[in-house]
Amino acid sequence: MNKAFRVVHISDIHFRSGFPHHQWQHVKDVLRIERPHALIATGDFVESPWPLMLILARREMLHFAGELGIPLIAIPGNHDVAFIGFAPIWPFTRLYARIFGGGNDEWITAAFPTFTQFYGKNFIERSCWRLSLYAKILWRWVSGQLKRGGSREAILTVEDRIPLKVVGFDSNCSLFLASGSVSSSQINAFGSHAFQLENNSEIAATLRLRVALIHHHLVPIPYTRSEISGHEPLLVMRNAGTMLKELWNHDFDLVLHGHRHYFSFTRISFDRSVDGGRELAVLSAASPTTAEPEAKSNSFHLLDFRPNGVVKARKVAFGTDATVHGERDVGDPWFEAISLRSVKPRNHRRMVRLMNHSCDLIEQDLRIDPAGVAHEVASYHGLQVRAGGELRRRLFTSRVDRGSLDAVAFHESRTLWSPGCFLSEPRTSAADPHVVRVSVDFNPPLNEDRSLSFGICSTIPNSIAMSRWEISTFPGTRRNSGGAGNAAQPSALYRELRA
């Protein structure tokens, strides 16, 4: 991933009769400009779980994701399983899993229009179409052909489609009015899944940013409309504290949710003394297509997951008179959801768990003398092994761009070594002459009761007139377009280095 992986986070669309199509069109126009790489939706696709409306909503979302050429990752909201969001009635509570779960994809795609296509017809055409479509649904249901597409009790996991580790939960278990919870079976399944993730032997999988999707909010939203003031207990997730602690324990980075139709962002830490006070970021999305009392209170999010682990987010806010003319006209400024300051200790923590040993500090020092000879020292401080581990040998690699290297260019610096460390003969590869590998043998082996500090010193002969380091550090240098390999040449100021 050479550039940021852009994700759009949207929630609480509420497809329904009287739907504001111009606001939904605005969302689609913005996303055609932004060109995200994935679409994440955290529930409440419909106002009530009527089967036709669920199917139209699913077709609309997948059709638009297909138009953009990106995957859709979705979890249910309380309105997707309960009428008006708080009245769960069997068997409608099971329809979301059957329609959005993936078991009826081919039939739904072939037989049904999108939400926009359906409501683009006039009333008479819609009425006739509605009867025909409900007849198809009823026949599939009665004949047993409406396949089970998945279970709401199972957690959603996304493995290979995007360069993130995404886990989704259904927070609509045991609904009481609009409040919900995550079932114990999901929490147990998540614990087993997270254990496998934490013990993965692949570096890329270990460092992959971990994102949890949930519908109900895990922390109080700091905005309350007057008509629902004092009703917070009827809207929250009842085991929010448990879920937050589980996610924090398993080293998750970010939670995306919806439910309250308000934007909110916070960071949570349970123990500032653990791992440098690591934090869990929680980002709440508003609704892009509901009537809100405040101006420009409709919104969704864009998130840029950058190669260095930093996550930037932007709220794209608008109102009921939404229009778009270009990328510059939409969205608030980007803000840092996950900073580099938290990424470094996170990656260190995960790699220590993977490799079973760690180092407190690595220092690299480069000096080029007046004759053009480069001297490089790599010092390793506090190399140690986790409890129960043992380290007999450690391989180190040095890569330079100061010309060709060979094994004789490396010299051991005895003053940097601790007792019990022995340097192997340096080795080079014919495929890449710029790389030299050496290994350090520990005798006795390094274990949890012993830590070492040592260093490797290399001296590189003056095999090139000017290094990239010199060119970028000193003024007055220039490149010579002639000569073999277009090597960098010093100016008159550094003429003595040509000797």
Annotation keywords:
27% strand, alpha+beta, 11 helices, 2 domains, disordered C terminus, Immunoglobulin-like, six-stranded mixed beta sheet, 499 residues, 24% helix, Purple Acid Phosphatase, chain A, domain 2
Q: What is the β-strand count?
A: 25
The amount of beta strand, in percent, is 25-35%
Low-confidence stretches: 324-330, 401-409, 411-415, 477-499
CATH fold type of the largest domain:
Purple Acid Phosphatase, chain A, domain 2
Give the N-terminus to C-terminus distance in angstroms.
44 Å
Strand order of the largest sheet: 3-2-1-12-13-14
CATH class of the largest domain: Alpha Beta
CATH architecture name of the largest domain: 4-Layer Sandwich
How many structurally independent domains? 2
Structure explained in plain terms:
With 499 residues, the chain is an alpha+beta fold. The chain folds into two domains: 346 residues, Metallo-dependent phosphatases (Purple Acid Phosphatase, chain A, domain 2); 107 residues, Sandwich (Immunoglobulin-like), CATH 2.60.40. Helix content is 24%, strand content 27%. The protein contains eleven helices and 25 strands. The strands form six sheets. Strands 3-2-1-12-13-14 form a six-stranded mixed sheet. A six-stranded mixed sheet has the order 4-5-8-9-11-10, with helices on one face. Strands 15, 16, 17, 19 and 23 form a five-stranded antiparallel sheet that branches. The C terminus is likely disordered.
